[in-house]
Specification:
It is a single chain. This protein is α+β, with helices and mostly antiparallel strands. The protein has one domain: 3-Layer(aba) Sandwich (Aminopeptidase), CATH 3.40.630.30. Helices cover 31% and strands 32% of the residues. It has five helices and seven strands, in the order E-H-H-H-E-E-E-H-E-H-E-E. The chain has a seven-stranded mixed sheet with strand order 1-2-3-4-5-7-6, covered by helices on one side. The model has no long low-confidence stretch (mean pLDDT 97). Bound molecules: coenzyme A. Residues 26, 29-30, 68, 84-86, 92-98, 120, 124-127, 129-130, 133 line the site of coenzyme A (COA).
Length: 160
């Protein structure tokens, strides 16, 4: 049976992000910013991720294959924001995202992180359901009228 695991991000993973951050379908579900990201910016954002001493970035593996990325980003007052993408789209809708979130919650526990939230597009039902099935609860509708790419999100929280 196929197995999902998480491992720490490493330098050689940049090639996956270069592809995922240029995938229009993925961008429409996440940042909404469809302008082509430059090689220089990919390098900048990737290095920021890999060098961070406070955030936690994990690669999602299906058996030995890289299929996505999941993270815990340090925010104010001991809250962490989580973000997930399964970049290899043929693996959507097979329960792997939900499994990766559940593994992340175990990692969070071992890191003594107990307050986790996320923001999701109200139209991203697949993501919303996988968060809800993992215990996240909708707490707020967030309006960003000045952000033309993502004017509204749902905030979901999990406190363990
Ligand atoms: C969001 C994401 C991580 C979910 O992981 P996944 O493995 O595809 O989802 P799962 O198979 O675990 O299924 C999640 C739920 O959505 C449901 N679902 C699956 N496909 C769906 C679809 N097309 N429309 C609506 N619901 C759907 C499933 O039935 C399941 O709910 P259920 O178990 O209550 O029936 C993954 O699809 C992804 O990375 N998408 C692109 C990036 C993205 O949207 N990231 C999140 C940004 S907030």
């Amino acid at each position: 049976m196929s197995k999902i695991t998480l491992r720490k991000i490493k330098f050689t993973d940049k090639k996956y992000f270069t592809r995922w951050w240029r995938d229009e379908e993925l961008l429409k579900l996440t940042s909404g910013v469809l302008e082509l990201i430059s090689d220089k910016d990919v390098e900048k954002y990737f290095l920021a991720m890999i060098k961070s001493s406070v955030d936690h970035h994990f690669i999602i593996l299906l058996d030995k294959n890289v299929i996505g990325h999941i993270s815990l980003i340090k925010k104010k007052a001991s809250w962490y924001e989580t973000q997930i993408i399964i970049g290899e789209k043929q693996y959507w809708g097979k329960g792997f995202g939900t499994k990766a979130i559940q593994l992340l919650l175990k990692k969070a526990k071992s890191l003594n992180i107990s307050k986790i939230y996320l923001e999701v597009r109200p139209t991203n039902i697949r993501a919303f359901k996988s968060y809800e099935n993992s215990g996240f609860v909708k707490t707020e509708i967030k309006e960003y009228p000045e952000n033309k790419y993502l004017p509204q999100t749902l905030r979901m929280e999990l406190e363990t």
